[in-house]
Amino acid sequence: MTSAAPADHLVVLLHGLGRTRHSLLLMDRSLTRAGFTTLRIGYSSMRQPIEQHAAAVAKRLDEIPTPNRLSFVTHSLGGLVVRQLCTLEAPWRSVMSRIVMLAPPNHGASLASALDRGGVLRGVMGPSYGQIADGVAETLPVPDVPFAIFAGDAPFVPGDGLLTVEETRLEGAAEHHVVPVIHTFIMNHPEVIRGTTAFLLSAPD
């Protein structure tokens, strides 16, 4: 493992449903200190479906010079967005290196499905919430680059409060870690930050 990231390794950070790019500020700062170039991309998580989120992120990536290496750190819905990105063709696709998913609803979210009876919440939270509740994640491709997953298993709540540990799993993951933290703040947990940095740093030259 190298002690610092190469300067040409860009890490894109994607937030979750109902959040903004500011929610990943602490993770961003930690990755920057480790030597990565970072880019937090915001998207209208409550207004559009996953396909359009991916298109918006792809457009942003198309607008910048293609790095020698591109990785992603995602929270919740952001993990499904990056899986959708894997269906696209673009110069940056060929340099995708690693992905870290924090509390991703890779097998839907039983709580979201239970709360969405009658479709009331999807009217408030938007089409992506409805897609998660409907299990659209099961139709998305598994990334073709090494990826790690961090799941929450907090005290006094099932799983991380929104997802069970099993709902975060995805066959083919290089690593799967469980930490005692709730869904909303998993990206700020010290163990998650250390593990994310280590996984990205271990990318081959």
Percent strand: 15-25%
Low-pLDDT segments: none
Oligomer: single chain
Taking all Cα atoms into account, the compactness measure Rg is: 16 Å
Order of helices and strands: EHEHEHEHHHEHEH
CATH top-level class: Alpha Beta
Strand order of the largest sheet: 2-1-3-4-5-6
Shape assignment: globular
Number of domains in the coordinates?
1
Report the major sheet: 6 strands, parallel
Describe the model:
Helix content is 32%, strand content 18%. The mean pLDDT is 90. The protein has 205 residues and is of the alpha/beta class. 41% of the residues are buried. Strands 2-1-3-4-5-6 form a 6-stranded parallel beta sheet, with helices on both faces. The chain has one domain (9-201): Rossmann fold (3-Layer(aba) Sandwich), CATH 3.40.50.
Summarize the structure.
With 205 residues, this protein is α/β, with parallel strands linked by helices. It has helices spanning 25-33, 50-62, 77-85, 110-115, 120-125, 127-133, 165-168, 190-201; strands spanning 9-14, 37-41, 69-75, 96-102, 147-152, 175-179.
